[in-house]
Structures
1.
Amino acid sequence: MKLKLDKKNFIPFLQSLMAEYDLFAPVQLADGVSVYKKIDQAEKVDLSISNAQKPAKEIFFPQSETMFRYEKAGKESRITSTEDIKRNRILLGARPCDIQAFSLIDQVFAGKDYTDTYYVNKRKATTIIGMGCDHPLSTCFCTSLNGGPFHREGSDLFLIDLGESYLVELLTEKGMAFQKNKFFEEANEKEISLAKGIEGKATEKVKASIPVNGIEKKLDQMMESPFWDRVQKKCLGCRVCTYLCPTCHCFDIMDEARTNKGRRVRNWDSCLSSLYSQETSGHNPRPTNRERTRQRLTHKFNYFPKNFDRIACVGCGRCTLYCPAHFDIRQTIKEIQEGGDK
Amino acid sequence: MEQTHKAIQNSIREKARELLSSKKVDVVVGFGEGTLPLRATPIFIRSPEEVDRLIWNSYCENNLATYLYKLSQFKVGLVVKGCDARSVVALSREKRFKPDQLYLIGVPCQRMVDRRKVKKAVKGEILRVSEQRDEITVEGEDFKKVLKRDDFLYPSCQVCIHRTPAKADVLVADPVEESSLVEIHPEIEAFEKKSPEERWRYFEKEAGRCIRCYACREACPMCYCTECFVDSSNPEWIDKGLSPSDIEFFHIVRAYHQSGRCSGCGACERACPMEIKLTYLTQKLNQDVKELFGFETGVDPDAPPPLSTYDIEDRQEFIK
Amino acid sequence: MLRTLELRFLKDEDAQAFHFVPGQFCELSLLGKGEAPFGIASSPTENGSVKFTINKAGVVTTALHHIEEGSEVGIRGPLGNGYPIDLFQGKNVLVIGGGFAFTTLRSLVTYFLHPENRNKVKDITVIYGARTPGLLLYKEELAEWAKRSDIKLVVTVDQGDKDWKGKVGLVPNVLEEAAPAAENTYAVICGPPIMIKFTFPKLMALRFPNERIYTSLEKRMKCGIGKCGRCNIGHLYVCKDGPVFSYAQLEKLPKDY
């Protein structure tokens, strides 16, 4: 079902959504810096950026999230759950790579053993309006990881920027619920073919193919390889890659107390922190950057595939773009495939 | 500019070859070619055969002194700009390495190009960059633009007057004429003109983007504590979430921990993925240290660090 | 410093629903302080309460050392896989413990000494060592076990004191002396890394195959259910796929512990 949304109607469209839903979309915090945020003013939505610094996963898996609140009275305590979602949500403008990552994190948090209700409740309550990448960057390699700039899997609605309007595709049952939206008109042949052209051009652009086949097997042989001493040298252990990665999902849990009230909160954590695996006895199985970079790369390309049959990377390129030491994951993948001998 | 850079590059390679062949150092830490335009990457060269991987260009922006903590068992040849050399002097005052452990390959710096500012001057992804004299030409899929290099330098580079490394073991080019590109220190001036409320609002807005990744801390050579105060659980100074007051506490305390130690290299700002302005805090504090103690980080290798030294002449008028 | 806590469920239905196997652990919470994992020291055969032995080391454990009788403690569990007691059926069991690591071994031994379970296994040998007599856990239970004829118990210390009348010797050496037959025997070994480092070769010398040597691993844990990511060894999670592993399993995993 192909509809279109005239950009002249964009703000009123957003406002109509905000009347019924909590709207989450990219917002510019500073020139060139964007994040996905809950929108309080429709004008703040910015779909022009290629991709926000922080991945869209924080809509379902916030960086800092209250798990429950408690209040103590004497020796007893009362706990209040924070699992429920008050209002249905819309995530607008997420790119296919970030959306691919949701299904990956689903396998961990919404798996058959122990469901993460905080995550799952948000997932269930959210309609995803994905957006095709008409100008993928040279650092993008989503196509090497079963994705693509116009990959529609995971989106309920899908937008393609045609210049003066957006082509709107309704893909799922959740998407079809928007069929009668008063701002949507039927798209004509010219617009549909324009969209096809944009999609073709963009997909052709992400042609850089990064060889990931067989990387799991290669890493099986490399646990004690001197490759890890070499690869970690320039790594500062600064954690930017893990915080901006759409597929990273490690977290820490702690209590925050204020006299007799408080909350249990979970925050994003990173395997690159020295304290991440520090044991109370003082022993740390990953004492240096070497073991920690090995953990990060081997988890993404070997351990995760062993458990879930897919690589924990969607090719968004953020780690390459934002690493202060200019680590290039594409180069690292190639080196691993060559046995790490160079 | 390309001529100068090439000459420096050859000099660095020669020196590295000499140091590694004579086994005067175990490793040379310098810069190598990046895989993206406008970027160079730190590299670690261990054999004389590999020295041709070392390069020099306008994107050698990292402060390589930050890697010294990982290399304490080795003799290191370190490629340093003026600011990096001052960090090394500050580190040596804090006894972070043995005196003959380092060999400093000093590069009189031509000032580094602000890749983010260049990126924002064009629409679309930059695919190729070249430099001729004092111009930078950037090309993308459907654009080509010529920019004036001097308009696209890092703020920390624009105000720098210590571009020639002072205590280098060797200089790979002639010392540069020390002068700041701008009249005054614009960041400090702008900050001082603000009222306390305006200063707070500016700081609050910048720090509000922080995601607690600590890239600033890891990129900084002076942040080498084995347990940073933000990671302490007993006592727990701040929580680990995104509470604005905790984030502000982190930024303020980290800036204060840098007073009289920060060389103003700007590595913290360049590392920050959220492009938070950071040097205005440390530079203001450094200016205060200069006024109160006549001390500038890393300039005089014999000057004792003012905040860990007592002098009978220290000012006391603030003690009431 | 060690303290053994005895916890009773506030609600009857929680107590009824709590079924565990020796070797499993629970996450204990003190609201405002945090949560930490502890091996269950009591056996499933000891009804009415659940015991944990806490070593005072950090924020949560220090708080657990200071709580008074009647205080509320949160509990999540039982978690983890527990010892493979089904595999032990009809076989001999050799239990080797060192220092504080004896907590879940107490659970295992108490379980098998219970009249309902004693016939499930053949010979039970327990070798338990600590650095000094003061650091031995569960002295009352040890005294009870010493009186029994259906368990061979050797308690040893690295260094005795003026009152100590028992054995003095390092666990690996005591194991060599006791030299139990490896045939038809499963070994369970828990202790500090240094003890394991020197005891393991002795087990090898006694011809114990890797598939019949089990251990319970320590790792930093948070969620206890394989979600937060931090306790992984290779693709397995110590909280979910462990903490009990056989050495045959560990051989195939990276040395990330």
2.
Amino acid sequence: MAEVAVRTTQLGKTYNGGVCALHDLTLEVESGEIFGFLGPNGAGKTTTVKLLTGLLKPSAGSCSVFGLSPLKKPCEVHRLCGVMTESAKMYSQMTGLENLIFFARTAGIDAEAASERAEELLKQLDLWDVRSRKLREYSTGMAQRLSLARTLVNRPKILFLDEPTSGLDPESALAVNSMIASLASTEGVTVFLCTHQLRYAQDICERYGIIDKGALLACGSVEALSRSAGLRVRAALRLRENDTPVDFQRGEDGWWYTDMLQEDEMPALIKSLVSAGHDIYEARIIRPTLEDVYFRYIQSEDKEALL
Amino acid sequence: MKIVSPEEKSVIQKDFREIWDSKMARSTMMVVPVVLLIVLPIIFLAVILNAPMDQINGIDRMIKLLPAEEKGLSVRQAMMYLVTNMLFPMFFLIIPLMMSSVSAANSFVGERERGTLETLLLTPLSLKRIFRAKVFGCTFFSAVATAVSFVVFSVITAVGDILLEMPFFLNWNWLVLVFLLAPGITVFGVVFMVLISAKSKSYLESVQTSGYIVLPLIFLFIGPLSGLFQLNAFILLIIAAAVIAVDFPLWMIAAHSFSPEKLLR
């Protein structure tokens, strides 16, 4: 069984003003996994990251990162992790290279190794040409990539990334995502990815937690979440004009749709349609997307709140 | 054993650079010592050397402020003695206080304001080491700036003493000021700034708040000038001891209050 990288048990946080930002969060993330933590703004994602990295003290419950309590051993946790949040900025009067060297030095890396590591990351993140420019002269995308480089400077075992692709153009967002995926697959880095960019999340995450108003609504793979949300796999078929199969609904695009319990039903469905005399021009399976699952949970939560 | 680790040294160097790169901090830290300990002493010296003493109002009353053992001085020498021992000690003590509070405001409040404190708190450096590096850096910076200011001031005053054929100005009062009260005030300025840093919304607000701690200092030296009380080395020694004694508990409280939750509120 894989090592548990992140564990939270009934974790809660109420701020001084009485605002409950998180309650009763219980989840586990395995080592090497890319876990997508999804939710709208103000759902409690950043609070969770701050609790897991020791920047906040929990009001209830407990949490650990590779078995270490961020509350009791924040330095050890920081030694293992790289954290990128929207509020954690870098030094604007320093160049990209100087920033990375500084953060490498604070991680206990000696001057020569810090310089080498900084140069390696700048090249990897396509920032080599702007290494001598001050951070204040960087574009949003460049600054975001430099922040990602900072999180990697101490070769972390786990990355806490809060909206790492926000403000990035699609090309840079894809590059960042593929880098995150490659870190997990080649170096076994665990990634705790907070985002509301669902399409990017679906590309790289293995499991998801959906959070809203400080409460975890669901946790699991897209398939498991789809099942528990009552979302079904659908068969989509393009038939000859004016052909009308029984128990199918016609979509606006002219295709015919029907729900299936499992993907395995597709061959039998096609066989039965062909034997019934229908000509099938195209057929495909439509699986529920992360976006479908996410909105099903968030909207059902809103409806419950209204009731 | 090294006083600071390489990690702490990089934080200190980074803080120095940030202070230097801040136009407001840099100009304040350069202009104030230059005006208080270079320009004003030169002006006072020029006036004492050249102004017709019999035409200056209130000279007699000022000479009455001289301690008994200095009664034999000429009018010009008496004026030099008074400004050197009653006016410039106040100006001198403003330097460590201002240097420490401006550097600490930049290092603590400024870093929070710029959003970089959170990033620093996420490094493997412990809170204790970040606190120590920042306090040590600000104290060291203020101490060096104060020492340089004092050396320049000493040269100007020594020139005045030579021209006026007076003994060198450095007496027991000045020794207590330079070696005990100034370091005590430096630490006080840094620690006070740490204490208010969690509550200050901006760098400017924290510097303005630190202005209040100059008031007791002004009272301390306006008193003797107005004839209310006399300051001697012994009284200054007691004041220095009191400031240093206050520094320790304040340091402990400041270190205790230096927590991510309070700082990033």
3.
Amino acid sequence: MKGKVGIGLRRDIANEIIDSEPIRPDFIEFAPENWMGIGGYWNRIREKAVSKYPVTCHGLSLSLGSPEELDWDFVSELKAFLDENQVQIYSEHLSYTKSKNAHLYDLLPIPFRKDAVDHVSERIMRVQEALGRRIAIENVSYYTPVAAEMSETDFICSIVEKSDCRLLLDVNNVYVNAFNHGYDARSFIDNMPLDRVEYIHMAGHEKVEKDLIIDTHGRPIIDPVYDLFEYTIDRMEPVPVLLERDYNFEDLESISAELDHLRDLIRKKWGVVHEAAQGNA
Amino acid sequence: MKLHKETRDIQHRLGDYCKTGREVSLPGVTEGRIKHYRRLVYNVVKNSMDQAYPIASSALGTVLWDELVNDFFSNHAPRSTQIWKLPHEFYEYHYSKNTATKLKRAWLNDLLWFEWAEIEVHTMPDRDVLPYNEEGDSLVDPLILNPEHEILQLEFPVHKQSLVDIESHRGEYYVLLYREPETGRVRFIDLSVLHAFILMKVNEEGIPLNEFKGEIASIASIESEKYLDDYLRDFMGNLMEKKMVLGFAVS
């Protein structure tokens, strides 16, 4: 899948992806939590999609950054699901979604602190051991730091190093965070362990205040994010690239065009040929 | 535990704020930004409840419905890793808190249960089906039911009439929800007490109708055997057309 371009399998566009019309990804990604233990119509859709495309999974509920113990029953179910679907890459967010054992269903920022580095790294290692595979952790967008004692880059790099995991580099999140917190996005990229990147996410976002962007995955990717993407891939070896789009599916042609634009940039930088774009998926 | 108590407490305080919306003081945050976490988290939960319970939310109105969602999320610790299951926890929470009585909406428990059951039947894992023939005698051969179904016993007929004046119709109602095999759509059928008894008996015991025809006749006060046979064949024939009865067990 290196250098290939995928899209998130959302229910609104599942049939268009399965039919490769008008959306022709090289691979698909889905959140295990949205498809595990489901029967009926949507189970058949998942089976069709999995039989047609290579699959990556991007988790929502593992909550690597929670203070509480990991949910090992969930990890066990997850392992079975990843195996059943022959998932090639499994990633999770570097955040927490559970507090006092209550699921919150969104990504909260972990304090950038040394003890949190140790805590999260140990949890990643235990998860990797249980799943029998390395996982990739994603740099998340955040709207305020909380009780930080180190930089975001040091926090991410330390965890990747200490846990020996891989990195899912979300280029849009780098752009969003750089804007929201007033740092230089390219310097941030320069400080990432690019040799540990297994996967890239690209997405659109929404500016809700003059100094605040929210990472919505609901709009087209903007040019400055494409620029940052080019800057990034110029400095690393080919990896799979995913377009995240969670809603606003009215204009499927424009989403298809986004996939093609990503392919063009990849072809230019990495020289990868995309069969899907040529209608051979 | 490698995490220091101070860091753990900070994380918990942010989590509590997202659940309750009650103001919190946290170190090292950018002014005016924390509120977005509460908004984003709460919207995810609220949207999930709105989508799961379109009839209940509409019947209660925006303000009251929002109070119910807020009460649930503030005081309950969601257990499910899958948000589509959260509406079931909402139903359980308000059932246990006796919200229906407190609000003087006695029908609320039935309505939440009915709306949740539609999601559950639509989404439940595919269940194994015993081998069956499409030809057979519905009185003599054991019937194979569509396994993706539920029969609810309700106190109020929330599945078949508007909520206006529904409290004057308190009684014993049954509704069958099942998933169409081909389309995956959920259908529901209002059942009489007799029909509910027959289907539950077939489902639980897997025996032919002939083996408990006497009980059926007694419940329905039917004396003519021919009339009863025709009645049962019609009932099961109708359910076969609707794909609730799949066929006849292979002997």
